[in-house]
Amino acid sequence: xxxxxxxxxxxxxxxxxxxxxxLAIWFVVSFGCGILFREELNQFKLGGFKLGFWFAxxxxxxxxxxxxxxxxxxxNKLDKKYGYDE
Amino acid sequence: MSVQFWTxxxxxxxxxxxxxxxxxxxxxxxxxxxxxxxGVSPLANGMATAADWMSAASFISMAGxxxxxxxxGSVYLMGWTGGYVLLALLLAPYLRKFGKFTVPDFIGDRYxxxxxxxxxxxxxxxxxxxxxxxxxxxxxxxxxxxxxxxxTYGVLIGMTVVLVFALLxxxxxxxxxxxxxxxxxxxxxxxxAFFISFQMTxxxxxxxxxxxxxxxxxxxxDKLDTLHTELGFNEYTSGTKSTWDVFAITLALxxxxxxxxxxxxxxxxxxxxxxxxxxxxxxxxxxxILYTTAPAIAVFSRTNLIETVSNQRYDEIPVWFKNxxxxxxxxxxDKNGDGKIQYVAxxxxxxxxxxxxxxxxxxxERIVTNNSDEVNELYVDRDIMVLANPEIANLxxxxxxxxxxxxxxxxxxxxAGLLLVISTSVSxxxxxxxxxxxxxxxxxxxxxxxxxxxxxxxxGYFGVNPxxxxxxxxxxxxxxxxxxxxxxxxxxxxxxRMNKEGAIAGMIVGMSLMLYYMMRFKLDMFGGGTSEDxxxxxxxxxxxxxxxxxxxxISIVISxxxxxxxxxxxxxxxxxxxxxxxxxxxxx
Lengths: 86, 588
Description:
The complex is a heterodimer.
Chain A: H1 3-36, H2 38-41, E1 45-46, E2 49-50, H3 51-81
Antiparallel strand pairs in A: 1-2
Helix pairs in contact in A: 1-3
Chain B: H1 3-24, H2 30-35, H3 42-53, H4 56-69, H5 74-98, H6 103-110, H7 114-147, H8 151-201, H9 206-209, H10 220-230, H11 243-259, H12 261-264, H13 273-309, H14 319-326, E1 330-332, E2 356-360, E3 366-368, E4 378-380, H15 384-387, H16 389-392, H17 397-435, H18 441-464, H19 469-494, H20 500-522, H21 543-561, H22 567-576
Antiparallel strand pairs in B: 1-4, 2-3
Helix pairs in contact in B: 1-8, 1-17, 3-8, 3-13, 4-13, 4-17, 5-11, 5-13, 6-7, 7-8, 7-17, 7-18, 7-19, 7-20, 8-13, 8-17, 8-18, 10-13, 11-19, 11-21, 17-18, 19-20, 19-21, 20-21
């Protein structure tokens, strides 16, 4: 394996690690808080919202938007670190 | 000034704008036609994607569906936004690096097989056609509602408009008209929402107003829950679907969103991989503005509706009620003869739409001939929640005209995006890649334009004569996309060992399984069945999740027992994983 390929596979590994973390958050806020554990969360209130209901109708969407922008930042940094920046 | 005047004026101005842009952004080459020349900025692309994505259904129907479904409506909110996370993280950057025009192109090259390409083209056509027919119908309905013309003429006007900007501009024209359409539709959606939120809760931001307090100091959502329980409905914030079904539908909608060809192609139009990631972010942000407002509108209009009509005398009802009764979207029958509107749980009709008699009843109401035996006296069409909302809340006439212009922008932008995918699939993936490989650039452009024309005529035909299955099938287009494309693309990027045998088998089995389930439980073929017969308690809307899992398993198992893909394909996979050197979207 030459240096180029090593660089590429190290880059890919870090990329996949980020994906796992971000998708785990994606899963927890939507399928977790909004669906599977909503009954439990509904005992708590956020203003006039039951918390589980809030995650299902508002909260998870806000988190989704943030997730993509975090991903953009992380990847831009990663591109620079491995010299793939354009 | 009258509603009619404002509607004609606002629709006229916005249409003139779209035409102007289409003429300004004429496409000269196939590259401009397919991917807008590859030079669209991430923000513009984000806006175009958002407009492309938000159809007549999102604009007109979604808030209404949520309004009646309460918590169950969350599947659409989470499903249609969460899919963008998958798209941004798992698909868009790599497909942009791959750098060709279409999804079937990616599938055909990645799986080194024209069979795979053809299967992908078939999937793209089925998904796009089912979806576009619904849009044309939406255009017809909005026109007929607001301009008081026949639905047929509404569809014809819509066809002509889409045809002009699609034929002239291709992807380039469509991209920039969609930018304008996004601005129109989001403005039109937000203005009434601000007004109503302020009226009901004193907070102008609907997202916050939804959780706010109403006069008297109770929280709006608690009040709505109480109203619902009193009238015999399920609590608004709890819903009726099983947890598993909510889970399955949400996942199917997410994966389907990420697999829809007309959304994916948008990421081929930006200059760099970096821009593809960023524009997915912009797109979701812009979509989220509407998607977080919709549940608020749902709550406001539901509360408003119940308070205005429940137990009120029909003689004293506000005039909007009678207006919409005239268009057939509201129906009341005085079953117990007390002259009051009794709105409780249960279907007021037998059948899904009211059938009217020409005569008028004792109070001047339209007589309905298909009443059910249940106590409920009121039928309310869901689409009314957005369309009539400004009237219910007594907003000025220009706001009502604005909603019409917004609904048209939403329907037309989506129809245009879909028609482009259909024409590209035919001219590029079928003709250029398979039937006539040495066709010239000019010939291919001509073929693309001819196929757009044919596609519009077919879509228009279904818009005028909607076959019963269209409505059922539109909702399931997502399941089809999830069951067919999504695994093939994901595995193509993340699993180097995935080969053509696995991918083709997976796509065919996933698609057939989904089609079978859909035909059986939605169209009553193969013996039909009720919700008792659903597999693992999964509704047809959620079945895409199961078909997708089957696709994944079959693809992986078959690929492991057959030969590895050739070295150059493995090299290609390595190369799309690296963002640099994407260059322009190449010709061939």
